[in-house]
Design brief:
The structure is a homodimer. Chain A is α+β, with helices and mostly antiparallel strands and about 140 residues long. In chain A, about 35% of the residues lie in helices and about 35% in strands. Chain A is built from five helices and five strands. Chain A has a four-stranded mixed β-sheet, sandwiched between helices. In chain A, a hairpin with a 2-residue loop joins β1 and β2. Chains A and B meet through α1, α2, β2, α3 and β3 of A and α1, α2, β2, α3 and β3 of B.
């Protein structure tokens, strides 16, 4: 689990990404800290970091969502999986997903899910390889 | 918001669906009630019902998810949108989504998102019409 002082390192990971480069901003650190605090209050919403040599080198968000559908199957939702650029393509992403699946099982989830931008073809191959099925379309709408 | 006694009616809505017919089961009512109770404990996870003539005729699930990505944009996630069969194609689905967007804005969300099965082509047209962008692929994996 991440601690509050990990927030700037996680923001750096989110920013160092083809899509994230244009939509994150370390100038907005206050709002990232506020979001981290709010996540702690939402009991089933976790920020996970991977640490190597004392530094945060990977992160993802894991949210447990109880619901009635699928015979009341609890779901785990993965968001914002990131690995530091110098360490990519070395198997760390697969370790993060294995960690997410283990935490999901422990929380009683019968399903793990995520969405990934259609432009991320490398990510599609990655999730295919790990046994994820691209069975759904992911729709988003900005709220003005 | 749904109350506990609405649970059987919501399960009936979930079951009366091309995909739900094979994957829901009113025989498992105990687990649906337990999931409803667990949702109440997860503060940002809501079951909403639409009532007409004293009966539950529509439902959806709305979960608010705080996170660091997109400059700490809070997201609203919609799941399991259902309308009673005799009332379909009469604009109730659009009312449900308008209700979801209003609740999402009130909760400080800057984005609303959902996934829908690739087989639901009617649903794709519906969300397209409401201004949702199918920008993502939705991956799922059962946890054995």
């Amino acid at each position: 689990m991440a601690v509050r002082t990990d927030v700037p390192a996680v923001v750096a990971l989110l920013s160092d990404d083809t899509l994230g480069a244009t939509r994150e901003g370390a100038d907005a650190l206050e709002s990232y800290f506020a979001a981290f605090d709010a996540m702690q209050a939402e009991g089933a919403n976790h920020l996970i970091v991977g640490v190597g040599d004392g530094a945060v080198v990977a992160s993802y968000q894991l949210t447990f969502i109880t619901g009635l559908s699928l015979k009341a199957t609890r779901r785990a939702q993965v968001e914002s999986v990131r690995v530091a650029a110098p360490l990519r393509n070395a198997g760390i992403g697969a370790l993060l997903m294995a960690d997410a699946e283990a935490r999901a099982r422990e929380a009683g989830c019968g399903l793990i899910q995520l969405t990934t931008n259609r432009a991320r073809s490398d990510a599609h191959r990655f999730y295919d390889r790990l046994g994820y099925e691209p069975s759904h379309l992911g729709y988003k709408k900005a709220l003005g």
